[in-house]
């Protein structure tokens, strides 16, 4: 089955830029989506189809997908951005959704 | 306003059966896929399966095929996740989530989660 690989943790100072990666094979043929999950809360979609933002998500959140790596970029990081971030794709061959293991973003 | 409201927390013993629910409102319920996602304590998100309430077409993750049953009642705008014989390892939070409607299957609205605790 398809596997998505994320770093377990990323740390960044307030005001700086955080980049969270998601690795997989043949990413070019898949659309990548990103979710934010704060403790005790349900996940929230922050980027879909590689680089689109749902309404209400700040422009500071952006996404890209190139080769075998997708990246969620959070500009001008705030304390409130501290959360777990997970990537997700739809695997057409298995007709299954797949999540990455999640990355804990710590704001120093 | 789109909402997915899940049933309340459950405490069960191993071997017992369970059915939890997810009720949608604020949109055309039959026309959007609904997925179920497991989150074990302290762990990441795991996709379990997805159902199209309009015709109950259902797809399961290979990891959960045969372990759970996903169903829907479009007249009640509700989908269900059920177990016939729970195990301690089923202890987790279970989320339902609505597919955003594109061929890439992302989840744009989520329920609040249902905590299932299985313990003797």
Question: Which chains have the largest interface?
Answer: A-B, 27 and 24 residues
User: Main sheet of chain B, how many strands, which sense, barrel?
Assistant: 7 strands, mixed
Write down the overall mean pLDDT of chain A. 94
Q: Roughly how much helix do the residues of chain B carry, as a percent range? A: under 10%
Kindly state the mean pLDDT of chain B as a whole number?
96
Total strands of chain B: 11
Give the H and E element order of chain B. EEEEEEEEEEE
Largest sheet: number of strands, sense, barrel closure of chain A: 6 strands, mixed
Distance between the termini of chain B: 40 Å
State the end-to-end CA separation of chain A.
Answer: 36 Å
Which assembly state applies to the chains in this document?
heterodimer
Classify the helix fraction of chain A into a percent range.
under 10%
Q: Specify the overall morphology of chain A.
A: globular
Helix count of chain B?
A: 0
Report the structural category of chain A: mainly beta
Low-pLDDT segments of chain A: none
Q: How much is the radius of gyration of chain B in Å? A: 14 Å
- Estimate what percentage of residues of chain B fall within beta strands: over 45%
